[in-house]
Amino acid sequence: MTKQEFKQKCIELRTQNYTLGEMVKILGRGKTTIYFHVKNLPKSEVLRAKLSQISRDKIISARGRVNKFGIVNQKGKSWLGRHPKEFTEWTASLVDLIAHTIFDGEINYSDVRYTNRSRALLENFREKMKLVYDYEPKRYKKYNEVITLAYNNVELARYVDIKKAELLNKITAFSKELKLSFLKAFFNDEGSVTFLGKKRAVRGYQHSLMILDLVKNLLVDFNIESKVDKKYFEIIVSRKENLVKFQKLINFSSGVRINGERSNSVWGRSLQKRDILASAINSYKLGLR
Fold first, then answer.
1. What SS3 string covers the chain?
2. Quick one: pLDDT band at residue 72, thresholds 50, 70, 90?
3. CA angle, 24 as apex, 18 and 26 as ends, to 5°?
4. Phi, psi of 149, rounded to the nearest 5 degrees
5. Which of 1, 51, 90, 200 lies deepest, with the highest CB count within 10 Å?
6. pLDDT at res. 58
7. Are 198 and 214 in contact (CB under 8 A)?
8. Long-range contacts: 8-13, Cβ < 8 Å, 24+?
9. Spatial distance between the Cα atoms of 231 and 47, rounded to a whole number of angstroms
10. What's the fold here for domain 63-173?
11. How many CB atoms lie within 10 A of CB 204?
């Protein structure tokens, strides 16, 4: 193979999204030699995703290796020695934290994430996370002012996942204070208010029917009636007596708003959900039955 033929082959393989490692096996030449011919070629999105996956796989499979900080890595252990702060006694704040990871959160192999557009809920999650982890998250801006807080730590992810399972398993036996904390987190993340003429309701959306049934059972403990719509994956609280109890015991946190910028927004402005609920309840007093 001439030099020109070799160069063209390198370029051809790169445009087909082969990595340097794969090209070494195919061409039988060193990485440095191959890289010289492809270093100025832009990486496609497919190739970038492929390289990212290879990088993640290496991290996950690494075991017993010394990293650049001189720390011996073991699978499932933080390379930087950043460990979660474990707890055995549940508090309202801890229930709130772990519950948020269930609803608008995400627990992956190597990170814990929380995504929301509400600055109040994002700050609440960041503050509560300090109860189990001393380090600040990375912030990623998404769309329509939505932000993700990402805590990149494999030990933390594994620990929070364990606590998530524990919370779901034990919440029905917890005190009413802790149950309320769970319900508040659910409706802050998943809840909305319907107030259109005579239609008044608080709704909570969740893809898990198990979670919806759990929320329904917890509401019963506070004499709040609700129904689960399995077709649309939502729980609905309606009628004045139930909405009044909901407002008094659970409600939406201050600063939690609807997105008034949506094209289908009924209100056309970003009102607080607790204010809409208050207006819905007050409408009963005005005779709107």
1. CCHHHHHHHHHHHHHCCCCHHHHHHHHCCCHHHHHHHHCCCCCCHHHHHHHHHHHHHHHHHCCCEECCCCCEECCCCCCCCCCCCCCCCCCHHHHHHHHHHHHCEEECCCEEEEEECCHHHHHHHHHHHCCCCCCCCEEEECCCCCEEEEEECHHHHHHHHHHHHHHHHHHHHCCHHHHHHHHHHHHHHHEEEEEECCEEEEEEECCCHHHHHHHHHHHHCCCCCCEEECCCCEEEEECHHHHHHHHHHCCCCCCCECCCCCCCCCCCCCCEHHHHHHHHHHHHHCCCC
2. very low
3. 75
4. -100, 125
5. 200
6. 64
7. no
8. 10/34, 10/37, 10/38, 11/37, 11/38, 11/41
9. 40
10. Endonuclease I-creI (3.10.28)
11. 25
Could you give phi then psi for residue 255, rounded to 5 degrees?
Answer: 95, -10
Asked whether 166 and 102 are in contact (CB, 8 A), the reply is: no
* φ/ψ bin of 268: left (φ > 0), alpha (ψ from -120 to 50), beta (otherwise): left
CB 102 within 8 A of CB 181: no
Q: Locate CATH 3.10.28.10 in the chain.
A: 63-173, 181-285
> Considering the chain, what is the average pLDDT of its residues?
88
The CA dihedral of 204, 206, 212, 215, to the nearest 10 degrees, is -50
pLDDT for the residue 266: 58
